[in-house]
Amino acid sequence: MQYYPVYLDIHHKNCLVVGGGSVGTRKVKTLLDCGASVTVVSPTVSESLAILAEAQAVQVKKRAYRSTDVSDMFLVIGATNDEELNQQVSRDAERRNTLCNIADRPSVCNFILPSIVRRGDLVIAISTSGNSPAFAKKLRRDMEKQYGEEYAVFLKLMGAIRKRLLQEAHEPEAHKPIFNRIIQSDLIQRIREGDEDAANAILYEILGRGYRFRDLVFEEQHPVKEDAPPAEQL
To answer: Residue 140 belongs to what domain range?
Structure first.
């Protein structure tokens, strides 16, 4: 099986999780992190799901699953320990051409969920096409050590720089050498070390006046002033 890799926008999309145990709870939390509108169907739910329901973060229907539950859903996840029920959820979703994942059962899914390393807006998805979830998890743990939280900060910084440069009059193609210089610099290492002065020096060398680390990372809270001094004066 060759899967087509894709990232889905599920913000405000109706998503269903059938099953309220530990697996279902993990699936719900991931969906919520991505902005989905989540409904859980299960006779019993975990304490975490009960708290989320009380806070109105999810809708919980404490009853047995019904085939009509998949109606108007963008995405469905089956996360029960009842194999027959999981198969029914899969069939119901298939009849409605709805995206469906059954936990640990790739043969009855029309999409599978990869292991994920998430650092802010940086998302690294790892898949073995269902052949070895254990190996995918091992790779995820390795990459979590390699890619720390400094990458989330770096990506936020790059987004702010890109936004500023795109507001300038010259062609976007002219920005590529700038981005390459930043990427090839020691900026990520300086962020990892918490050396803001060194980060400012790199930004000033490549971008010139007005591009300061703190102002870029916290741009909404701290707008950059036109007369911002160069990095070496900070």
So the answer is: 114-147
